[in-house]
Amino acid sequence: MNLRRFFRLPYVLIVLAILGPAFLLPQVMRSNRQPTPPPAAPPAAAPFVSYIAGTGTVESSSVNLNISAPVSGIVTQMSVQAGQHVRRGQLLFRLDSREAGAELLRRRAAVEVSRSAVAAAEANALEAQDQFQRVRDIGDTRVVSVEERRHRELTALAADKRLESARADLRAAEENARAQAITVSRLDVVAPIDAEVLQVNVREGELASTLAGVRVPVVLGNTERLHVRVEIDENIAWRFVFSMCVWSLCWSARPRLRAVPPNVSTPACCR
């Protein structure tokens, strides 16, 4: 009997060696665990019995306007900075206009050339008309032959046609110069509305590109009145009613908002 107990003792010790740490390890870990600190601020809670929630984004009432450059070019002047209020028509930034300006000068010079051509054509037409009038009323063929009279008449008609062509060339040159002047003016990008500059993404000397995916040079928005775009989960979207009041739990300056379309009267709680 004593021998049998002697052989059973190691098995008991082995079992205790395995099970002992399994029971003691959780106790040690719980004793070393740091207590969870209290939250710095209580979580937001809706002060209503019945409500739906959504994630909101504050936007300008005009929707953010991405002011792009009409053509890709180097910014030579940036006239605004973020946070600045601008008026409609105020200069935002200017692109390099040296090449376009040189082309404008060339086309204006072409206008002057066309005007000189018109003046010369007018003088030739007057001279040809005068030569024709001198022989038109002379009936005596011994003084002026029929061929001479016909020649002067055709010369006067040709001079008139050349004058019309010169005037048409002048109008075309003026339109070309006017179109180039518009191209030069487009390089001065101005504000389309009264707004606030929300972003300025380029600086003087940098390239303002028109490629897709590139950040626009300037972003404008009317911040006098803000709009909040709310995304509501599709599982509870059916509970949303346009005439209900909307509250923002994190915007302390103006906590009460409205979700009222133009064809729905404003509820009394939101007035």
How would you describe this protein?
- The chain folds into three domains: 62-96 and 190-224, OB fold (Dihydrolipoamide Acetyltransferase, E2P) (Beta Barrel); 97-186; 226-270, no CATH class.
- The relative contact order is 0.18.
- The protein has a four-stranded antiparallel β-sheet, with no helix packed on it.
- With 271 residues, it is an alpha+beta fold.
- The protein is built from three helices and twelve strands, in the order H-E-E-E-E-E-H-H-E-E-E-E-E-E-E.
- Helix content is 41%, strand content 19%.
Q: Main attributes?
A:
41% helix, alpha+beta, disordered C terminus, OB fold (Dihydrolipoamide Acetyltransferase, E2P), 3 domains, single chain, rod-shaped, four-stranded antiparallel sheet, 271 residues
Quick take:
The protein has 271 residues and is an alpha+beta fold. Helix content is 41%, strand content 19%. The protein has 3 domains: 62-96 and 190-224, RNA polymerase II/Efflux pump adaptor protein, barrel-sandwich hybrid domain (OB fold (Dihydrolipoamide Acetyltransferase, E2P)); 97-186; 226-270, no CATH class.
Explain the layout of strands and helices:
Blueprint: H1 2-32, E1 54-60, E2 65-67, E3 73-78, E4 85-86, E5 91-95, H2 98-136, H3 146-186, E6 188-190, E7 195-200, E8 207-208, E9 218-221, E10 226-232, E11 245-247, E12 256-258
Antiparallel strand pairs: 1-10, 2-9, 3-5, 3-8, 4-7, 5-6, 7-9, 11-12
